[in-house]
Structures are given as C-alpha cells and as structure tokens.
Amino acid sequence: MTLQAGQYQAAIDAKIQEFNTRNFTESFWQKDASLWVQDEKAQQSVRSFMGWLRVAETMQQAVPEIEQFVQEVKAAGFKHVVVMGMGGSTMAPIVFKESFERSADGLPMSVLDTTDPGTVRQIEEAVPLADTLFIVASKSGTTAEPLAFGDYFYHRLRELKGDKAGENFVAITDPGSAFVAAAQAQGYRRIFLNFAEVGGRFSALSYFGLVPAALYGISIEEMLTRAIGMMRACGAYGAVEQNPGLELGVALGVLAEAGRDKLTLVVPGSLNDLGLWLEQLIAESTGKEGKGILPVAGEPVREPAVYGQDRVFVYVGYQGQPDEANRAKVAALQQAGHPVIQILMNDPLDLGQEFFRWEVATAVASAVFGINPFDQPNVQAAKTATDSLMKVVQEQGQLPQGEAPKVTENGVAYYTAVSGNDATDVLRAFFAQAQPGNFLNIQAYLTETPAVNDSLQELRRQVQEQLHLATTSGYGPRFLHSTGQYHKGGPDTGLFVQLTVDHPQDIQLPGRSYSFGTFKNAQAAGDLQALHDYNRRTLRLHLGADAELGLRQVLAALPAALQR
Ligand SMILES: O=P(O)(O)OC[C@H]1O[C@H](O)[C@H](O)[C@@H](O)[C@@H]1O
C-alpha cells in the first residue's frame, strides 16, 4: 500500500504519534472497547462483536469440513448454487463471483439479494431448479428478505421433489437463531452455524464467505493463509505506522475529519463489486451520529477539475495488470493535490488479506471518530416503517395511497418537497439545494440491466460534471442493508433520488397475502419515510411500467435543470 496524503500527512503523523503513545495496537487486540466509546453498554456491544479479529484462524480448522461438504454436494449431482441473503451475508459471494474466474471444478453461482420480482424470475428461469443448491444466509435468521427467498424457492422445490425438497437447501446462520429450527423442520441438507461475535459486514472470512467460495471452486485454504498473513502484519505489537490496517484506518479517519470524507474507489473492471463490499463495511460501520466516511464506488473517473475538495481516492488493482487508463487518471488526481491511496494485489486470492486490512482500517477510523463500528442503529428506521406499511397491506390488501406527484411528464411522476411547473423545473429546484461537500445518492428499486446501469451512470456523470458533487448509486433493497445506515445516520449532506417502477409481472409469495413487488414497494416507501423523518432532501421518480424508457425521459429533462 502507498499513501500519498500531501498536505494532510502532518495531521496523520500526529494522530499516529498519539495512538502510539496510547499503546493503541495492544489495546486494540485486547478488545479494549474504550478505544471507541465510553458508555458501558456501548462498550459491551463493541466487545461482543470483535470475533472477526481471529475468525480466519478459527476457519482454518473448518477447511476440511467445508471441502468435504463441497464433494458431497457435487457427488449428489448439484449443478448450480444460489446464495440468498442481504447485506453482509451475501456481499463476499458477490465479490468472489466477479473477481475469480470459476475454476473447472467449481459450480456456477448466482446471488439473490433483492425482492425485485424481475430479478427473482430471471434467476428462477436461469438455473436448473431440481439440481440447484440454495443457500439461505442470514446471521440473525430474522431478516425478512432471505426468509421470503427461502420460502419461495422451497415451495417451488416442493412442487418438484415433494418431501425431499430440503435436500436442496443449506442454511448459514448464528447458533440459536429462530431460523435454525425452521431449517431443521424443513429438512435442510446442512446447517452451518457461524459465530455470534462476528457481525455481518465483518463475516467475509467466516462460513458466510467461505462456503460459497469453496463451492465456486476457490481455494479457501490459500485465501485464509493470506488473510492470516495480513492478520500477523496488523498484529498486537509494534508501532501504528508499521501496521497496514491501523495506518490505513488512521489516515482515513484523519482525512475524513479534515473534510476529505468521500472515499472514492477506483478499480479495474473485475473488481467493481469489491465496491459493494467496501460500501457496506465502511458506510454501515462509520455512518452514524452525524459522522462517517462515504464510500463512493462505481463513479466514472474524471479529470481533477470535476472534483470538489472532499475526496480521497483509493485505487485497488493488480500488480501485474497495467489498467493504464485508471492509473493515469489517479496519478493526475494526486498531482492536483488530492490524497491518493494505492493497493496492489498479486491475484484475487489476495482478497483474503484485503478483507482483513479493510476491516481493521474501518474499526480504527471509527476509533478516530469515537463511534461504535459494530452497530447499525439507523437501519432499523426503514425496517420499522416498512413493517408498518406491510401491516396495512395485510389488513387492506394494498399499500396506502401516498402523496400526489408535483409533476407528471412523459409517464414519469415527480414526488418531492420542492415545486416546479414541469420536470426540468422540479429537477432544477431539487438540485439547487446542493451545497459544496454534498453528495447525490441514487436509489434504484429497479431490475438491474445494462441499459439501466448506463442511464444511472449518465445521471451521475451529469451531476458530477455540472455540480461537482460526489455521486453514489445502489439498487434497492440491497443498499438498505448497507449504505442505508449512512444515509440516515451520517451527516445531513445527501440528496436522495429514489427510482421506482410498476411491477406488471409480479410474483406472489406462497402462504402470504402479498407479492414480491408489494414487499419491494413497501421497502421503498418505508425508506423514503425514514429519510423524511431524518429531514433528508429527497426526490422520488416513479418511472411507470418501463424503467429504461422512464430513465431516458428523466435524462432528457436533466441538462437544462443542471445549467447554472
Ligand atoms: O445476516 P442478516 O442477519 O440477515 O442481516 C443482513 C443485513 O441486514 C441488516 O439490515 C444489517 O443492516 C446488515 O448489517 C446485515 O448484514
């Protein structure tokens, strides 16, 4: 890793000095919760979530058990794996799937982490159902989405295999979770019990990451060896500046406090989804009490003039891979005075060490801020609002009618607190609220397609170029279990654009009075409600029946709105 902090180096050095004087490294490994928080209850919570520090060592003992399980699954004739869950329970498999070429002896893998009916249908149609192993991954065993996914596909398998449906199902959950009993009752093939003291976003190197990785054909033994190498480098003794995780964490904490709080990730194509994992780790751990680091992933990389003074750029790539376009741009950004961090891996197996490095760094940055990195107090706000809306659905058969749109133009309805006579007017008034150091967040409750991705990137590009704002984008409901914490708990600097759509081809949930589409609509409406409760600036765009067409209409109205 190289860190070029420019004018901020002195402040980083001073903080490192202070941490050394306090014997930070030793206290960190002794799980001294007073490094983060002073309240006794909060300290207890910190101590109870430090299991990730040594989980790679623990998991080394479990490698033979996992590899034997993989052999058993293959011998039973399974041809595909679907991992189903939200947030920390599925982020690592998403990264593995994109970063590694599947080896010849690995099984193809899909990940389902959305209630979007279009995506559920796509997965259902793409996999050989009877020969597919479904992994329901939920630490708490109470998260609504994975339980719904499990029910839906279990029901489908019952239709194909009757009482033998459970053979196709595996659970990964915490010991004692309510889901353990349910999975046993349904005859699940296997239940992997994870560790209560390892939180979701710190669980990549536990069963949550490693069981899917092994099925996909990745050498989990080697990945753990590399993780343990980093663990030793971040070890209990020695100065902070010789400790890769601690040094990174102090730097990120100090830079954020100096206003460089938008951690902008630049990666080669095969590492794009590392951004999803980092987003969850960093945003959910640090985005609270009005503080935090905003991870910015997947944003088009531009010339220095486009950026404000709120960025730190992090390049993660490969030693042997030139990735010239990105590296040249990052070099120009550093030249222009932006802080730049570079991390070069040898190959994707080094992700094991990077997971560990970033987990340490995130915990350390949280110590700089004086917050508990292991809770997510504001995620609950959206869940509670969604639950109330789902109660209405169960009682009245549908979601309550919301407010009227400010404008409807070309089939797109605009809902926001500001007013205007037409779409461009409303967009102009909405974006006029932006201040330097603010960010745009796009919340896409849509089916992911290449065309939708292109339109979202175009929206970001225009806002970046005209307003010099950092831009982030996430698919809902995935981001609710990730960056959603920062949106409500972090500083009030976000402008939120929520994109929703009709679900003409909805899917009914078996044994329930509602569909995936209604559930998803309730999640969008619930989070919007939560954002309003925190006085956030929001614009909801309901795109009608065709998301791609609706987005094109919005993009057509945007340039005039962004002219200043
Ligand atoms: O693994 P689970 O208990 O199902 O939780 C899945 C995710 O949902 C929650 O909303 C949390 O905010 C995330 O940190 C967590 O990773």
From TrEMBL:
PROSITE patterns assigned to the protein according to its UniProt record, in alphabetical order: P_GLUCOSE_ISOMERASE_3 (PS51463)
Domain of life from the UniProt record: Bacteria
Swiss-Prot/TrEMBL catalytic activity: alpha-D-glucose 6-phosphate = beta-D-fructose 6-phosphate
EC class (word): isomerase
Signal sequence range: none
EC number, as in UniProt: 5.3.1.9
Keywords: Gluconeogenesis, Glycolysis, Isomerase
Presence of keyword Isomerase: yes
Pathway given in the UniProt record: Carbohydrate degradation; glycolysis; D-glyceraldehyde 3-phosphate and glycerone phosphate from D-glucose: step 2/4
Family indicated by similarity: Belongs to the GPI family.
Protein name: Glucose-6-phosphate isomerase
Taxon lineage: Bacteria, Pseudomonadati, Bacteroidota, Cytophagia, Cytophagales
